[in-house]
Design brief:
Layout (H helix, E strand, L loop, with lengths): L1 H12 L20 H21 L13 H8 L5 H17 L9 E2 L3 E4 L2 H13 L3 E4 L3 E6 L2 H7 L12 E10 L2 E13 L6 E6 L4 E5 L1 E6 L7 H11 L1
Antiparallel strand pairs: 1-9, 2-8, 3-4, 4-7, 5-6, 6-9, 7-8
Length: 239
């Protein structure tokens, strides 16, 4: 009863939590989530851990040689979803960005595989579907299809990653001129997303493994595409 009464007080006070920072953050930098994390730690999580500690009906946290106190606190720890989602999206973005270096490989890239806990992936699904992606599921698989660059750019918006754009990369050559070294634009590479070139998030429920598939197009300094067939598909969708 005491916990329930305390819970009601905490819930009533949640609307007054100050989750914002100084107000001048324009990107989700490392400190972006700090106020929310502090609020979680000293309000909701404190109450929850107290309830866990005092309850009489508990699983056997201390199986075999496990420390029951350590396991109880670690297993029931609260984490704010926001920074977790951004961190996994960052890893996916970095994997795509790594394929945008100097190369002549275009079209469908080798798939990226990443272990993602289900409770994290379902929130990634919500983000992708919320911005226009489609979702299909079976007993063993969840397939998220992003076939619009607008949707992809929202899911991987640079503001999530301290301003870093993982969907495109510009290339420069170092040239000596008048006794000094200058950088000269030499082309770019970009992740292309459309009906014929979708970005696919294929999730294996049993293994909790995510497979990311995507397409890359490359352009020279004059903006001519290297893969003409791929560019024809892109142009066809744009017309």
């Amino acid at each position: 009863m005491a916990i329930n009464a305390e819970a009601e007080k905490v819930i009533a006070s949640l609307s007054s939590l100050k989750l914002g920072s100084s107000g001048d953050d324009t990107e989700r930098s490392t400190r972006f989530w700090n106020p929310a994390l502090v609020a979680m730690k000293f309000s909701v999580e404190t109450l929850w851990m107290k309830a866990v500690w005092e309850t009489e009906s508990k699983p056997n946290y201390g199986m075999r040689d496990l420390d029951p106190i350590l396991e109880e606190r670690a297993s029931n720890k609260f984490e704010l979803t926001g920074p977790l989602i951004d961190s996994f999206l960052r890893e996916l973005g970095k994997s795509m960005y790594s394929k945008l270096g100097r190369s002549r490989n275009t079209g469908l890239m080798p798939p990226v595989k990443l272990f993602v806990p289900y409770n994290i992936f379902r929130n990634i699904c919500n983000v992708a579907a919320g911005y226009g992606g489609s979702l299909k599921s079976t007993k063993s698989q969840i397939l998220v299809t992003i076939d619009s660059f607008n949707t992809a750019s929202k899911v991987f918006l640079p503001v999530r990653f301290s301003g870093h754009n993982f969907l495109k990369k510009r290339h420069f050559d170092k040239i000596r001129q008048d006794g000094r070294t200058i950088l000269q634009y030499s082309g770019r590479a970009a992740v292309v997303v459309g009906k014929s070139t979708p970005l696919l998030l294929d999730y294996n429920l049993k293994q909790e493994k995510l497979t990311l598939s995507f397409y890359v197009q490359r352009y020279n300094k004059d903006e001519f595409s290297l893969d003409l067939r791929l560019q024809a598909l892109i142009n066809q969708e744009q017309n």
